[in-house]
Every structure is written in structure tokens, then in C-alpha cells.
Amino acid sequence: MTSTKTCACKGKRTCLVCEPLIQTENTCLHEEKVTYVYCPDCGRAWRDTKTNDKHPNHSGNSIIFPGVTLIENFVSPEEEEWLVSEIDNTAWIDSQSGRRKQDYGPKVNFKKRKVKASVFSGLPAFSKMLVKRMNDSNYLDDFEPVELCNLEYTPERGSTIDPHLDDSWIWGERLVTLTLLSDTKHTMTSDCQPDVEVIIPLHRRSLVIVQGAARHEWMHAIKRVDITQRRLAMTFRELTPEFRQGGQNEVLGRELLQIAASFGGLSVGTKCT
Ligand SMILES: O=C(O)CCC(=O)C(=O)O
Ligand SMILES: [Fe+2]
Prior knowledge:
Layout: E1 34-39, E2 44-47, E3 62-64, E4 68-71, H1 77-88, E5 93-94, E6 100-104, E7 107-109, E8 114-116, H2 128-136, E9 147-153, E10 161-164, E11 171-180, E12 184-189, E13 196-202, E14 207-210, H3 212-216, E15 219-222, E16 231-239, H4 250-260
Parallel strand pairs: 1-13
Antiparallel strand pairs: 1-2, 2-3, 4-14, 5-6, 6-9, 7-8, 9-16, 10-15, 11-14, 11-16, 12-13, 12-15
Bound molecules: 2-oxoglutaric acid and fe (ii) ion.
The site of 2-oxoglutaric acid has 11 residues, from β9, β15 and β16.
């Protein structure tokens, strides 16, 4: 691939801004995968067929798919409108694959395993009510996020996110994402089951918690076809035990938790994953 990219894409990543400027290799993109759709009510993913019935009337093949919790209507339409206006009052930074981002968290060099707390001024004030609501829920009562990454996806830019696993050195067990403005889907794939993909429907205003096998064994992605309108994602991340009490990086972890909980943060330009 030769390139003179004018956007934030690096390496093999592309978006609708840079694609007309680059020559892509003529690779075969047809992958034969069997698609399963995750059902939050039974924790299983069911073979996608035109006649697929809704829970509990599923039929056909299914696979167990542990580690995904969906909470519908986590925020109201009025709260969504307020959150979007707060987010849009903050500068966006161009990111890879046609996304834009805002980051509230420490600067992390994942390869060198280095963390700088000094750039981090806390989670933003507008996220305080979301963290409180998480803590009031059954699933996230002990969730103490130290990072919020807001991502913006638009069909005009052809925004996507390639299949990836989030870091698991500093970022802890639960990845928590609130979807705003439009529905989308996570496509989960695993090298261990190359002919399978599992779709997680992410509805507008819903919260998804990804942990366990879904966090560590399955990569998540968002395909271009699944961004049909502007979508904002607010992803909150917690610390691993290494940064908690008794861990090797406990002191740094405590500092990050304190900064995060000030809820006076300004966005910084750091990496999200
Ligand atoms: O937009 C999303 O729902 C996922 C974002 C994501 O995977 C990431 O920031 O690592
Ligand atoms: Fe991710």
C-alpha cells in the first residue's frame, strides 16, 4: 500500500478521507464466516437466520458467549442530549480509521509499560452522574474508572474500528461503553474460531460491559456498514490488580484513582487502546 495520507490513519488503517489517495492491494476480502447474534437474555449467540426468533423462542444452533452484559436505556433521551452537548463543547482530536476522540486518563505507553499521571486532570464533570449510576447498579457497584475515552464515528468519514483486544496490563477486567446517538454492532472474532463471528447489538443509550472471555479471547470491532449515523461511544476503563492495593504499582494506582475521582478533568491527547 503506497500512501500520502491527510488524516490520522497509520499503517494499514484507512478511512474515506485517505482511501481515494492510496492504492490498496487487490486482496480478497471475502471471508466466509458463520454469523451468530448475541442474546443478552440467555447469554448465548444464535445462528443468524432470516427467521431468527426473539428470546425465548430461539431456534437453530447456538454457542455460549460469556462476558457480555447489556443494560438498555442506561440514560434517558434528555440525559443523552445533555451528554452530547457537553461532549461537543470539548475539542475533538482526529484519530485512526475515520474516528475522532477525546481522552481523559493517564498517558500510557503500552509497549514500554510506562504511565504518566501528570497529564491527567480527572474524569470530566459530566461523567460523574454516569459513574454514580454504574455504582448504584448490581453489575458495577465496585467499578472505579480511571479513564474515559469518547469516540465519534460518522458514515461520512467511513469510521470503523479494526478487530482488537484492549490492553490488559493497565486496563482491568471490565470495559464499559455507553452508546449515544445511534445503534451499532460490535463484531467479535477469535483466532481460535476463525469461521465464526458474533454480533453484539449495541442500542442507542445502552451500556455494554465486556469482560471474561469476551474481553480476553474475542477481539471486538465495528464495521463500516454498522455506522449508519453519527455515533458517540463513551468507554470507561478500570485498573488491573497490579495497580490496586497490594499490587506492584499500588502507589501510582492510588494517585490515578484520586485524580479520576476529582471529576474536574480536561481532555488530553493520548492513545485510547
Ligand atoms: O466504539 C466502541 O464501542 C468500542 C471502542 C473500542 O473498542 C475502544 O476504544 O477500544
Ligand atoms: Fe476496544
